[in-house]
Specification:
single chain, 263 residues, alpha+beta, Diaminopimelate Epimerase, Chain A, domain 1, 2 domains, 17-stranded mixed beta sheet
Length: 263
C-alpha cells in the first residue's frame, strides 16, 4: 500500500501531513515513530491526519514523533490549515476540530496562518522544580515555564528532560519552555517537548503559554508578543486582557511531497 504525504514546517516545527478524509486509514505507533525518526525515516516532530468532520471544514488528529496520540499542537494547527487548502478546500477562513475543541484559522495575505487558540487554563504560580523557579499553564498542552537571563548556551535536552520527567509536579509530563525577556514585547524561547523527547525548533502552544504567562506576571507589557524560536523564525501571539481571545500567528510552509510503502 502506498501512502502519499506532504512534509510541512510551522516556524521550524515539522510534520508529516496525510489527507485521510477518504481512506480513513489507521497507523500503528511503530509505523508513525519509524516515519518520524530522523536519519532513517522521513523525519518529523509528529504526524498529522486531515480527517472529515460532521460540523466543521475538517478534523485534525495529531501524533507525536513517538507514535502516541498527542494533545493540541499550535504550529500543527497552522500547518493543517494550509494543508487543507492545498488538498482542495479552497477557503481562507476555516473552522476545524481537534481533541474535542473547535478552532478557527485564517490564511493571511502574506501566507502566514492566524490560529485562534482555546483560552489558557490551570495557571500555577511560582514553584520550584529541579532547582528552577517555574510556572505552569495549559494552552491545549501542558507547559512549564522557566525564566533565565540567557538561554542561548543552555543544554535544553538535559535540563528540559529533568524537568519534564518530574512526576511530583507533572504526573503526565509537561513541555518545558526556557525563556529570556528581550524587551517589553519580545521573548526568546527554547522548548523541550514531551512526546518528541527533545528540543524542537518551535512550539506553538509553548509560545502561547510563554506570552500569556509573561504578560500575567508583568514581565512584558504588550498584548502582541514576538517570540524568537530556535529555528531563527519569529512567531506572534496576540490576546485580550482576559485571555479569552488568543491568537497564534506564524509561517506554515510545504517543504516537499512524497510517498511511503507499507508492506
Amino acid at each position: 500500500m502506498t501512502i502519499h504525504f506532504t512534509k510541512m514546517s510551522g516556524a521550524g516545527n515539522d510534520f508529516i501531513m496525510i489527507d485521510n478524509r477518504t481512506e480513513q486509514r489507521t497507523f500503528s505507533e511503530a509505523q508513525i515513530a519509524k516515519w518520524c525518526k530522523r536519519g532513517t525515516g522521513i523525519g518529523a516532530d509528529g504526524l498529522i491526519l486531515l480527517e472529515p468532520s460532521a460540523h466543521h471544514d475538517f478534523s485534525m488528529r495529531y501524533y507525536n514523533s513517538d507514535g502516541k496520540l498527542g494533545s493540541m499542537c499550535g504550529n500543527g494547527g497552522r500547518c493543517i490549515t494550509r494543508f487543507a487548502h492545498h488538498c482542495g478546500i479552497k477557503k481562507t477562513q476555516f473552522t476545524f476540530e481537534a481533541n474535542g475543541e473547535t478552532y478557527h484559522s485564517e490564511i493571511l495575505p502574506d501566507g502566514r496562518v492566524r490560529l485562534k487558540m482555546t483560552p489558557p487554563k490551570a495557571f500555577r504560580d511560582k514553584f520550584t522544580v529541579e532547582g528552577y523557579d517555574a510556572y505552569f499553564i495549559d494552552t491545549g498542552s501542558p507547559h512549564a515555564l522557566i525564566y533565565l537571563p540567557n538561554v542561548e548556551t543552555l543544554d535544553v535536552f538535559k535540563e528540559g528532560k529533568k524537568v519534564r520527567s518530574n512526576k511530583a509536579h507533572f504526573p503526565d509530563g509537561a513541555n518545558v519552555n526556557f525563556l529570556s525577556v528581550i524587551s517589553p514585547d519580545t521573548l526568546r524561547i527554547r522548548t523541550f517537548e514531551r512526546g518528541v523527547e527533545n528540543e524542537t525548533l518551535a512550539c506553538g502552544t509553548g509560545c502561547v503559554a510563554s506570552a500569556v504567562v509573561s504578560y500575567r506576571l508583568g514581565k512584558i507589557n504588550s498584548q502582541r508578543v514576538t517570540l524568537h524560536v530556535q529555528s531563527g523564525e519569529c512567531v506572534q501571539v496576540e490576546f485580550d486582557r482576559e485571555f479569552q481571545d488568543v491568537f497564534l500567528i506564524g509561517s506554515a510552509e510545504i517543504v516537499f511531497e512524497g510517498r511511503v510503502e507499507i508492506p
